[in-house]
Design the sequence.
């Protein structure tokens, strides 16, 4: 068996579990006699690499058992990350080493450059046989472009929102709920001591899975981006919860992207010296609405970066190590263009997501639009970690 | 729809998540207009209940939203538990209210009484339409006897060992690994600071799943009851780990029931005043062997009751609430003789375990008998939480 | 020794440790043969009590070993709390049972009523020999009024800000730092993975102790209400930290009340339907300033209610139990008008705070106004938990 | 001001907080323009250093901001530790590079060598102006020998047992209690669910402080090495606790060195192949005694290495950073022969402990020999973290 040279990178927002994948791929690949190169700062590592260099320390680090031994005990990504998308670069973000004339040949729109040729050059320089990108929709759909250009890709899905098509689970989702649940359960005592309504805001502009399943676990109300709601009705439900709870408090979780009918998240205040205006905080606005409508004291609490912080929980430890090992087996088997996945509750793989795939979203089989809370009925047949199941028989992700 | 009266009880060792099932069943049943009676101290509640009483506070508590509202935030079982098996009672354990003559009619062996008739009397007195027993093999296989006697049973599997037939997951398994992993990761600093070999002992007389998957998560060696091993070989592997680790330490996990070839867990010391002799601690013996063979400093650390302590982790929160809700739906649908289960990675149900079913055990597809560690290859097709999968097509648990 | 009847209440914001005081007083008092009555919802329990009632369950609960046994394992206050100050009631907040004419006789200013006579009546009805109020400046200075009116008071200081005069330590301070430190250390991985500047906001409108000593523990920059600062200078310091840190990130903690020179926390946006306008979040504004000045990516994270949530840490467990037991000993000894305290690093007591006492604040011996961080020099002679020491020789709190 | 070269080392058992001292000394020393050399593996670093070497990587590491930046977030000691005492070396432990003849000249007893001259040679080779040893009685009293030989020493006390003379607090004590408390509180649910008596064993052969103050915090019984006890009386107390607790359980903590009257911790079993016999576990023996005497079900649980594992708690973070900074100030001020200390509840320093100093131990002002539990009375005047206070006026440690 010939040796192989694998590049690995992390793109987009970090989640606990990324380092487990990096370590797992490194350990398993070394057992098989493969080399692993860490590419730093996501796709930026392949756009901004010093041209022709195989030793640019800013963007490259050879990975081995010794330098990855302890990384899986902490969150974040040891390779660092960026949101660079080589297909949609702004002029101001182009690599400084890029020739201006060459750059203009890659212009694909108003202040928009597709510098994939640079990425392919760098991959060639580095002699990579495979790339293992770890990321969400953006990172993975760019890897699809490289796949289309002939590059060998085995991808790993991660996102706190659990909304990538083709898999029932993305790394980071369980830990996000673990953190959110801990924070909400801790804050019950202060909310109850003052007989308040607590409004918790959770990351999630478009998908409500994290808010929904945190609410499932904590048995609280929640509002999510997929469904506009009647804020008066929510206020009534919370007032009833408050009255019926023997400790006289109530809790609602709002995704940052959840808006009530007639509501709007405005930019507020004057622009600062740098031209930025601030977005109102949806939890603060909602807390104010609830107070106004019910007369109850309210507080709002933001659960944001903490949900992607700290060590991975047991699910993310298991999944990150399993995905890593299966990824190397897929590489050994010569497969390409595949994304690791949980399908039918089991470890498997799907085709790479493409830009055309829409993200998964919550539907009414999971969310009770009357009660503004998760549904607890009809769970039979759901995967262990709940949410949608990916049917291996009929899905476009098979084959 | 006529109302129903549901009895719920917990038997055997407690695990985090039991209270989530109790609360979940109570909440959902009340939504459906059913009554729920908590039976205290496992099957003892149905053997020792004051005859004819429906209000014996020692053994009965009506459950409602108010008294179960906060119980799911802690481990243990709010209903308390016992290891009482009504089919195998010793004379000394018979209910004091039981008539001696009547008792002798139930004698089934040398100091062994099957007082199932008492249990059935008490069920009749309480007017229970359904019993929801939550437990492991012992508790559930007794419920099978009641099922055979015509009682309506919907059972919920729990056990830290994850070794109940017919389900890929039992409540408590993930939390046990969460606790074990946390303890081992915490103790790495002290083991490393002194350049030691750390030997961790984990509950598990017959099944090695908890030790195995803790080792998987922490990437350490492990020895388990299913496979006798060569202690000299283990010592060599650990000495190599110790030498190659840049912080100069090594870790091995031993199930309490794992013995090396030629090894034996003796009773040690003289009997105490009450006639008890003490079993040697396998971790202590193994640590001593390793020290003797390698010259390395060793410590041994017991991870026992802590693995079943504290609040449930996210998996056990999800599974306990899902099992509870599906259980009530099965009751509403008139099903009987079923055990909640994860099958093919999804929520479903199986037939009740019987006494003839053998517990599940670790096989060589999961455990590397050469390296004395979990296998990281061949994970494709495994359930999310690893271990065996229950094939819905061919299993005797279907139908 | 005649028996005594002790009333206990908690006022103002809750902190972990309050329940430890309630339990500790109850246990110790019962050992001494005293009765303990829990007064619910702070001073509101003594203003809104049903006139003449000794059994108003909304506001009274007899305390004993059984009902306080487990309360010290969680945060919050089992007696609930309010911000009611009987000396400064608004008309709309007056007890509904209060006669209008009588009320007018207690008017002391524009929409301001001092209903201390009602409080004294209720104390008489309840037959209380002693009141043990647990609270911060507001709660305790009202107890001083009762003391001046002849009531026997032994008070216990609590506040996350640690700014009560006459004691080196207030219950809740250590736990707040424990929580803040944990959150910041968890979030380092996400801040570092994206090479950002993290801005953490911590409760504290007037006193910067919590921000300061969290910064001390985490070795980060901080800005506090006591000192206006040059935001350009802060941006430069953070840019340097960011450049010199091998993981390329930097952290600053801001008290919610810390403003830079020329800065202002405006109300932003239009008034909502209830007439409220929202205050800008100082961390968001500061993050924006730093981004504008340095070009570095920034995030802001709020550490607010979480700091008063969850179980008490070891310091707050020790102090709450010790204060409780000494409080009962002071009662047994017939002392009155005293507040429990740490003085010279030891358990002791001071006179009750009065409205004239100014809160303690951070000075330049603790805070480095050049480096915008805590001082690490000159710690000799400070109390174990740092901050000011209360000199038993010269303080007005002695005697 | 001339530069200084400081050696720093950690000896004996590790505790959380050691790395905070190492980092704190390094940061502060660098600000002052001093050099810091990490000496690895305690005093072994100064006995086994390659003779004449200033670059022996096994035993030396130059410390700077970059390599100590993150070490304070974990327990253990980044410099590793050993129990080497250069004054009491066995022949088999002598450095292999040591000339046999020279060695014999240092023989001070039966298989006992005092190789302090080697240590002094190595110190001279390394050009150290100061040594900062961090350790307990053994480590510190050896530093006293070096002090007597003219070396400049500023020592830092650490020990889980909090029993070093001359200071009210040793690093590691609070974290040990934090860990023990968490474990006991977690295990309450399993002990209660089965209505058991839980026996917890805690490190402490000679001093009972850790057991005592864990019992104080958890309000449980405890038995300690300082006082032999009547095991029948203990059994009765626990049976009463069990009966009176509404959840029917009881807890006792035993120091590993606590023995009842007539009790004995025997070596048990036959010697293994390496000649070791095993000591019986005191918790197991005690649990068996209690079961025999009361008929109650018992469990025993060992809290040993976990108490010195994990990150330091807030007290140990504060104290480690404060001790480190004051240590460097003492060095800058030319002081020598001092040990950092908490005295009268404040940061200060004492003379170095000597071999003649006896360890501090628990007395009857802290321990209730009738009730077999901590005393909750007479706490007035105790230091914040309880225990003995060191009176700065009269102590032999002053001056």
Sequence:
């Amino acid at each position: 068996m010939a040796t192989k040279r694998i590049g690995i990178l992390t793109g987009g927002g970090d989640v606990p579990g990324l380092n487990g994948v990096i370590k797992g791929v490194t350990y398993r690949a070394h057992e098989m006699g493969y080399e692993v190169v860490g590419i730093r700062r996501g796709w930026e590592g392949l756009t901004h690499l010093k041209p022709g260099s195989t030793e640019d320390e800013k963007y490259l680090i050879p990975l081995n058992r010794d330098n990855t031994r302890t990384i899986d005990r902490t969150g974040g990504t040891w390779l660092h990350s960026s949101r660079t998308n080589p297909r949609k670069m702004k002029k101001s973000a182009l690599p400084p080493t890029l020739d201006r004339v060459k750059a203009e040949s890659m212009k694909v729109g108003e202040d928009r450059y597709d510098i994939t040729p640079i990425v392919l050059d760098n991959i060639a320089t580095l002699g990579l046989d495979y790339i293992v990108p770890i990321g969400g929709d953006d990172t993975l759909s760019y890897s699809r472009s490289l796949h289309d250009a002939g590059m060998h890709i085995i991808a790993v899905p991660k996102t706190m929102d659990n909304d990538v098509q083709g898999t029932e689970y993305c790394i980071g989702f369980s830990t996000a709920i673990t953190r959110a649940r801990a924070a909400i359960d801790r804050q019950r005592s202060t909310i109850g001591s003052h007989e308040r309504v607590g409004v918790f805001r959770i990351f999630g502009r478009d998908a409500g899975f994290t808010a929904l399943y945190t609410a499932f676990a904590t048995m609280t109300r929640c509002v999510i981006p997929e469904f506009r709601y009647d804020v008066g009705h929510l206020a009534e439900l919370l007032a009833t919860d408050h009255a019926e709870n023997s400790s006289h408090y109530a809790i609602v979780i709002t995704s940052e992207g959840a808006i009530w009918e007639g509501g709007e998240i405005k930019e507020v205040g004057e622009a600062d010296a740098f031209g930025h205006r601030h977005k109102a905080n949806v939890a603060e606005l909602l807390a104010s609405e609830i107070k106004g409508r019910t007369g109850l004291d309210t507080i709002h609490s933001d659960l944001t970066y903490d949900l992607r912080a700290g060590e991975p929980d047991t699910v993310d430890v298991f999944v990150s190590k399993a995905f890593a090992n299966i990824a190397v087996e897929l590489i050994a088997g010569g497969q390409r263009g595949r994304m690791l996945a949980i399908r039918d509750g089991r470890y498997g793989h799907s085709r790479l997501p493409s830009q055309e795939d829409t993200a998964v979203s919550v539907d009414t089989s999971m969310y009770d639009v009357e009660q503004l809370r998760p549904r607890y009925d009809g769970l039979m047949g759901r995967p262990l970690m709940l949410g949608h199941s990916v049917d291996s028989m009929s899905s476009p992700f098979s084959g």
